[in-house]
Amino acid sequence: xxxxxxxxxxxxxxxxxxxxxxxxxxxxxxxxxxxxxxxxxxxxxxxxxxxxxxxxxxxxxxxxxxxxxxxxxxxxxxxxxxxxxxxxxxxxxxxxxxxxxxxxxxxxxxxxxxxxxxxxxxxxxxxxxxxxxxxxxxxxxxxxxxxxxxxxxxxxxxxxxxxxxxxxxxxxxxxxxxxxxxxxxxxxxxxxxxxxxxxxxxxxxxxxxxxxxxxxxxxxxxxxxxxxxxxxxxxxxxxxxxxxxxxxxxxxxxxxxxxxxxxxxxxxxxxxxxxxxxxxxxxxxxxxxxxxxxxxxxxxxxxxxxxxxxxxxxxxxxxxxxxxxxxxxxxxxxxxxxxxxxxxxxxxxxxxxxxxxxxxxxxxxxxxxxxxxxxxxxxxxxxxxxxxxxxxxxxxxxxxxxxxxxxxxxxxxxxxxxxxxxxxxxxxxxxxxxxxxxxxxxxxxxxxxxxxxxxxxxxxxxxxxxxxxxxxxxxxxxxxxxxxxxxxxxxxxxxxxxxxxxxxxxxxxxxxxxxxxxxxxxxxxxxxxxxxxxxxxxxxxxxxxxxxxxxxxxxxxxxxxxxxxxxxxxxxxxxxxxxxxxxxxxxxxxxxxx
Length: 594
Known about the structure:
By secondary structure, the chain is of the alpha+beta class. It has helices at about 20-30, 75-90, 100-105, 120-130, 135-145, 150-165, 175-195, 205-220, 225-250, 260-265, 285-290, 295-320, 360-365, 385-395, 395-405, 410-415, 420-430, 435-445, 450-460, 465-480, 505-530, 555-565, 585-590; strands spanning about 10, 35-40, 55-60, 65-70, 95, 120, 220-225, 330-335, 335-340, 350, 375-380, 485-490, 495, 535-540, 545-550, 575.
């Protein structure tokens, strides 16, 4: 599977080289052969913090066996010319993570490259080799093309280490640096074309179209209200200080230090039973602390207030004043959105982290419409997880409910099994996640004995649903026993790996969450097809947030709901839209007032 190692990399360091480069570019684009474009920048994190001029250091362009590395700031006009010529010629352009390079161009006010001709080795490798845990250009190329593809990276690391250079300080004319950059272009073309020749993947076009839409959201940004950030930060700080004082009185002076917790809980008489797999230290995660609250006395009080201290500290760290450092001159943030990064195939929204925005009005008040005269509308799937579970398991009782008049599924389960609604809601979600009896009991606020009784009644009412969960769990276990990496297959045909060595109770949840991710991606593409792309603000989990002119709000509500409808499975997935909102927190207040 070795690639073509006959590669030439050129460095444009003198005006006399310009004509030779432009002739090469003209010939290359005229040939119609695939090319690759890449950028070398300083620290990657800086790209997502604010407007960073001059972040682009080297610009590289090449085909399968020849490339050019160009100092971007010195030859800015040439870089702009190249992007314009590429857009006119419309060759297939290979990247390794195009969202990053396109964002670099946007920040540097350089022409963006046509997304319709863009290819991505990372996305294609994730789909073709889903059981691999390394999808970056170098590890993928090393495996498919041969070890020669990683040699330049190893040499560059050595030179940087020996000279104490960083990505910001390494000289542009360092041969190992510009050769490494140019080689990346040739490797990208060879790797991408090899994977396509080997069959590609039927879901690849979906992922690439979704990636292009998401990149548009990144560039447009998410407007934030500085005043709301300050109010929330101040409120959370007050709660954190209050909880810290309570914990201090209980003998816990530094709630964030594990050693302090170990000592304090030992003094209270608590014997840990859950330990970190990596370190062997006692674990005080959310589930452990929830269980400790049943023990009474200072142990229960400490666990309760430690959970509150952690919750509001996490909120302040993610959505407090720290957000101000990510805002651009227009008051918007441009988060790094990785569309396939999560284990379940869902997105990860980071720098700043916005994947799981709390359902808290004060937090969501931070997010506001893009322009004056616009309002926010959010649409999310109704009971998405349990609908998917009903369809995939073939449980007739669950399916009958959704095929009938519908309504409150959690109340339906509660009435059918003769249990409280909160217990039914806990079971409906937690069992798919592989939660045990004790965990579900703590979440529902009932005893383990009561929860076991509820589970017996629910199993009797929905026997096929639980059998399906056990079946996919057993399949994953068998794959590892046979010497392979455990995995699950989704209805859309993609495969997702499971974490080796963990309980396989996550199998059902991975299928459910993974299919839900695919559903939202297809729905987002349909949103573009009906003209909603410019309004899209942020997709997260099973929800889409949009900013629209107030006069268009009701039309967009209807279009969103229609685009999100999915009937691939026997049980259709349906969405509901909020009323128009002046700020995102209005949806939470509306529910609280119902």
